[in-house]
Design goal:
- The complex is a heterodimer.
- Chain A is of the alpha+beta class.
- Chain A folds into 2 domains: about 120 residues, Alpha-Beta Complex (Cathepsin B, Chain A); about 150 residues, no CATH class.
- Chain A has 10 helices and 8 strands.
- In chain A, the strands form 2 sheets. Chain A has a 6-stranded antiparallel beta sheet, with helices on both faces.
- By secondary structure, chain B is mainly α.
- Chain B has a domain of about 80 residues: Orthogonal Bundle (434 Repressor (Amino-terminal Domain)).
- Chain B has 7 helices and 2 strands, in the order ββααααααα.
- In chain B, strand 1 and strand 2 form a beta hairpin.
- Chain B starts with 9 loop residues before the first strand and ends in a 6-residue tail after the last helix.
- At the A-B interface, helix 7, helix 8 and helix 9 of A face strand 1, strand 2, helix 1 and helix 3 of B.
């Protein structure tokens, strides 16, 4: 059985799944940047004390599942989302969905994901893909970060759906419950609310480790990494930062470029010229994230590694924090 | 080329000359390729250290497979269904030697190796 479904490649998995599933039920306006912006995917958090893969815990995005949920909510589309304790039930529920004609989004771990190159298989459980059919024992898979569709045996799919560790997916699946016509007005409202939420997330969460304050916080920490961890481990920490920022999914610059694209597309719906100016500011921030990544790579490649090099890295992030603070403040001041 | 670049190009967002955002397909970026390499070099170090420790009798082969699989006792506990304190015991060579094949089988499945290989620390690279 193969559902009528068109594969779509995206920069980030959850944006891609959201965009695909919504387009598939007839919401043709939706694009990856719009899903990312309406779903308020942009974020920053650095959690000291917790370690992931022996490195710092850093995220450039909101928690998995939020982009899909928020985007659907904004567009008034009911969502079905389920977790399972039993593997058998998880599979039969998936089969029923496919029989009922729903392509389904699944949260999976990448460690056992067969079509990923070995180098990418970390214990990372917040990957998303779409199952759009089943032929014999093979599930038809559309993974938004891949150029083409692929397949997985039922036991392979079960293994990644029940990956273990932090954010274990527990067989989680989700899809829009029914088709709804979405008006441009709904998109406009969604854009405004999405921006509002992101402004809150990046500026106003009252803890020092999230949003622009979080970027400042890690910038200050980086200054001490060399003394505290030694050059080698400090380099590995920076490598982890760069991977979180640039690896598959972020579309580069820690999502800043996608957010810039979102603001440009938002302008087509809400012709406020501020949106274009602020989009440029995000491009600047994205570029500076990349400059910082190059500086970091000098350190983890062992080419540089003096305290001044760490200080410069820190200064870049302080500057980014300042730029993004301005950008989100400007967004909060737009009179809609 | 990035290791992902061998099997797929990635979508990236970038601005064109007029400042308008478009998507392009990228084969990877040197900076992030080396970031990934750095991570794997570190893993290789940890695996080698684990191997030496096992050979010297400081730990059971479990330590080697655990590092090789990028796991810690917490993830391994989730996958095998053992408690973390049990796994910590199994990491001791003497305790490991006395484990039943049934228990070893649970580890072997998670690491994709046979029980015999698990005991002899032979890793199936495929």
């Amino acid at each position: 059985m193969k559902l009528n479904y068109e594969h779509l490649q995206a920069a980030h998995c959850e944006n891609g799944v959201t965009t695909s599933l919504l387009q598939n039920i007839g919401v043709h306006q939706i694009t990856e940047p719009l899903a990312f912006g309406i779903g308020s995917g942009i974020f920053f958090v650095y959690i000291p004390l917790i370690k992931i893969n022996n490195g710092p815990a850093i995220a450039f995005r909101s928690l998995p599942g939020l982009v899909f949920n928020r985007t659907c909510k904004a567009l008034d589309i009911p969502v079905v989302r389920k977790k399972f304790s039993s593997k058998e039930k998880a599979q039969s529920y998936l089969d029923d969905c496919l029989t009922a004609g729903h392509p389904v989004g699944c949260q999976v771990g990448v460690y056992y994901l067969p079509y990923f190159p070995k180098e990418y298989r970390f214990h990372f459980n917040a990957h998303n893909l779409i199952v759009y059919g089943k032929e014999g024992d093979n599930y038809l898979i559309s993974d938004p970060v891949m150029e083409t569709v692929t397949t997985m045996k039922s036991y392979e799919l079960e293994r990644v759906r029940f990956a273990k560790g932090a954010l274990a997916p527990k067989g989680q699946l989700y899809y829009p419950k029914e088709s709804r016509l979405v008006t441009d007005d709904q998109i406009r409202e969604g854009i405004k609310n999405g921006i509002k939420k992101s402004v809150y997330d990046m500026l106003h969460i009252p803890v020092p480790i999230t949003g622009v304050k979080g970027i400042r916080f890690i910038a200050k920490r980086i200054r001490n990494w060399r003394d505290k961890l030694g050059v080698k481990n400090a380099g590995l920490y920076l490598a982890q930062l760069v991977r979180m920022q640039e690896e598959i999914g972020t579309g580069g610059g820690g999502f800043r470029y996608i957010y810039g694209a979102f603001l440009q597309q938002a302008h087509a719906y809400l012709p406020k010229d501020e949106l274009l100016e602020i989009s440029n500011t995000f491009t600047q921030a994205g570029d500076l994230w990349r400059t910082a990544a190059i500086q970091a790579s000098g350190i983890y490649k062992g080419r540089i590694g003096n305290q001044e090099d760490f200080n410069l890295m820190s200064d870049y992030l302080l500057e980014i924090s300042e730029i993004e603070k301005q950008a989100f403040t400007a967004l909060s001041k737009i009179k809609w | 080329m990035s290791s992902l670049g061998k099997i797929t190009k990635e979508v990236c967002y970038a601005t064109d000359e007029s400042g308008k955002y478009t998507t392009e397909l990228s084969k990877g970026w040197d900076v992030k390729i080396t970031a990934l390499d750095a991570a794997w070099d570190e893993i290789a170090d940890r695996v080698e250290q684990a191997k030496q420790k096992v050979l010297k009798g400081g730990a059971s082969p479990l330590l080697y497979f655990m590092e090789k699989a990028l796991m810690d006792t917490s993830i391994l506990a989730d996958y095998t269904g053992f408690w973390q304190w049990q796994i910590k015991r199994h990491l001791k060579p003497d305790v490991f030697k006395r484990l039943s094949d049934k228990k070893l089988q649970r580890y072997a499945e998670v690491f994709n190796v046979s029980v015999a290989d698990l005991k002899s620390m032979k890793f199936n690279e495929a």
